[in-house]
Design brief:
401 residues; Growth Hormone, Chain: A; 82% helix
């Protein structure tokens, strides 16, 4: 993991990402609390969250196509400075008009989702290929560490002084991260091919995945995990409060355990990929992720579920980080941003369907049985992947045997 930090440009980039993600966690908690206090409605909270889902599933691939032609360092800075200004309007204007708040959140998330494919495309430019897994693990670590270290503090801060200071601190985090990114080298974009229309270029990201067996199989598995594995997103609170009867504090402990497992997974996955190869680590982590979900439903007891959630976080990073590297190394540079935009849209759509469907299925067959069904589905897809040849990656230890 530390090998990636030897590179000064990536080190600066990583620190900026860690600062931004920490600020985002402050803002996320404060936003949900503020909206609920203003409206007293769970439906209104869901409506505000829908702004993020709409951007992720629909707008992201369109943005990625435009972003691919732009200088990437400038885009990364833009993705800090504009949300840093927008978040200041939440305590000033958003508290007075919920429709305006929705528009502010929508605009902020446009820049946040723009950042995702640009980061993915920029990372291979900041580290050599042999350090790519370590670098991707650190990017994942920044996201998850912020959840572990900041979410609890966010709740304390909001409870003590109200939501407004959290938005101001988030703005500061954006501006500090933007200042750090000014020190990155220039990373040029890829000019659009002459004669190709914008919509055909949008579709090329999806078409590249469909035409590349390695990507088609791995992204197909990812969408399955997002669809079936998302039961823990929607049903975790029902499992804690309704089934295990450990209350909201128990649910909070489960979420913290999951995030802690993801942090450990992010910092150790490069060790395993160097020894076993990206394809093998992806397949094994995918199957174990499903097995743990299955076991949670089979034995829904808090003292088992708590470490089980830790394991789901660990194995989740075990297939997400290698997948990121697989996408980066199996995709031409002129398609990287569009491919990651397509992957983000597909996975977020699958999560949305899984969240809605998981809730409906749980009302029908019960929470524990839904965990069993979701985990079993993930395991079966993982086993199918293995028995049909796995993910053969050139240069992996398994491919040389």
């Amino acid at each position: 993991m530390g090998t990636a930090l030897r590179h000064a440009a990536f080190r600066r980039f990583f620190v900026a990402t860690l600062i931004t993600q920490s600020g985002n966690q402050l803002q996320r908690v404060a936003l949900m609390v503020m909206v609920y206090q203003l409206s007293g409605s769970n439906a209104t909270v869901a409506l505000v969250l829908s702004a993020q889902l709409v951007v992720s599933a629909v707008v992201a691939p369109l943005l990625a196509t435009w972003a691919e032609t732009q200088e990437r360092t400038r885009l990364l800075i833009l993705a800090q400075l504009v949300p840093g200004v927008l978040v200041l309007f939440i305590p000033w204007l958003g508290v007075k008009h919920l429709p305006l708040l929705w528009l502010i959140v929508f605009a902020m998330h446009i820049f946040q989702r723009l950042e995702y494919p640009v980061i993915a495309a920029a990372t291979p430019e900041l580290v050599p290929e042999e350090d790519l897994d370590a670098a991707n693990g650190l990017v994942a670590f920044a996201n998850r560490f912020a959840e572990v270290a900041v979410v609890g503090l966010s709740g304390v801060l909001v409870a003590a002084v109200g939501p407004a200071p959290a938005f101001y601190l988030d703005a500061i985090s954006y501006f500090v991260a933007g200042a750090l990114l000014f020190g990155l080298p220039r990373i040029p974009g890829t000019p659009a091919e002459p004669g190709k229309g914008y919509w055909s270029r949008v579709l090329e990201g999806f078409q590249h995945i469909a035409r590349t067996p390695l990507l088609r199989r791995s992204i197909g598995a990812l969408v399955t995990a997002a669809l079936l594995g998302s039961v823990e997103i929607v049903l975790g609170v029902a499992l804690a409060i309704g089934v295990m009867q450990v209350g909201s504090s128990g649910y909070g402990a489960m979420e913290m355990s999951l995030a802690a497992g993801a942090v450990l997974g992010a910092v150790t996955v490069a060790y395993w990929t160097r020894r076993l190869g990206r394809g093998t680590v992806f397949s094994l982590a995918f199957i174990f992720f499903g097995l743990v979900l299955f076991a949670v439903g089979l034995y829904p007891v808090f003292f088992w579920v708590l470490p089980a959630y830790f394991l789901t976080g660990y194995f989740n990073q075990g297939f997400l980080v290698p997948l990121r590297s697989l996408l980066q190394t199996a995709t031409p540079k002129n398609l990287l941003t569009r491919v990651f935009g397509a992957v983000g849209a597909a996975s977020q759509t699958a999560v949305l369907v899984g969240v809605v469907g998981g809730g409906a299925v749980a009302d029908w067959i019960g929470v524990a049985h839904t965990y069993i069904l979701g985990g079993l589905g993930v395991v079966l897809v993982g086993l199918y992947l293995v028995v049909t040849g796995g993910l053969r990656v050139d240069g992996d230890p398994a491919s040389r045997r």
